[in-house]
């Protein structure tokens, strides 16, 4: 009897500590500009999708960088060079739009051909998909059954962007 109640007590205490730790971590992350994408998409936690999926190394690396906000897009380059967020325009499509992760994935007109092919080949209900928020689209594409094709899609986008990209900061990607 004593052992059972003691065991339950420690489980409860452990759960409370874990909850407080996670809560503190989320509050700390919310203050970090680099993790803004990660905060918006709320990936499934158990188990981590990238850790349990077979994804090519380069594709996995690009996907992880995108999720963590460190992929070399204008928003990240601007943070590094202290350029105002609203001035981090996409130099791939030149539409005077901030190049963040969502623009790169779902809006950049210079990458539309890759996006269209990906949608036709991998999205069964494109109309419903297009009605989702950008964060929900990423969440949908990060499900275990889709993560591999999503990571490959990111690699294809990034490859084409690297050919078109017009750097103005003197940085080498």
Q: What are the salient characteristics of this protein?
A:
single chain; about 170 residues; mainly alpha; 2 domains; 10 helices; about 0% strand; globular
How does this structure look, described?
The termini are far apart. This protein has ten helices and no strands. About 20% of the residues are buried. Helix 4 crosses helix 10 (about 145-165) and helix 7 (about 110-120) runs antiparallel to helix 10 (about 145-165). The protein folds into two domains: about 1-30; about 35-165, no CATH class. It is mainly α. Helices cover about 60% and strands about 0% of the residues.
Topology:
Layout: H1 2-30, H2 36-41, H3 49-52, H4 57-68, H5 74-80, H6 101-106, H7 112-122, H8 126-131, H9 134-141, H10 147-164
Helix pairs in contact: 4-10, 7-10
């Amino acid at each position: 009897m004593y052992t059972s109640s003691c065991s339950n007590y420690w489980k409860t205490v452990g759960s409370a500590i874990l909850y407080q730790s996670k809560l503190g971590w989320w509050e700390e992350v919310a203050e970090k500009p680099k993790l803004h994408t990660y905060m918006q998409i709320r990936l499934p936690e158990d188990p981590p999708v990238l850790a349990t999926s077979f994804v090519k190394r380069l594709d996995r690396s690009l996907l992880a960088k995108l999720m963590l906000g460190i992929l070399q897009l204008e928003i990240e380059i601007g943070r590094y060079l202290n350029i105002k967020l609203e001035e981090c325009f996409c130099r791939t499509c030149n539409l005077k739009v901030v190049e963040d992760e969502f623009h790169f994935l779902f809006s950049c007109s210079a990458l539309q051909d890759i996006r269209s092919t990906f949608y036709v080949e991998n999205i069964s209900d494109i109309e419903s998909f297009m009605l989702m928020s950008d964060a929900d689209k990423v969440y949908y594409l990060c499900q275990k059954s889709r993560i591999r094709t999503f990571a490959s899609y990111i690699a294809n986008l990034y490859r084409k962007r690297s050919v078109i990209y017009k750097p103005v900061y003197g940085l080498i990607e």
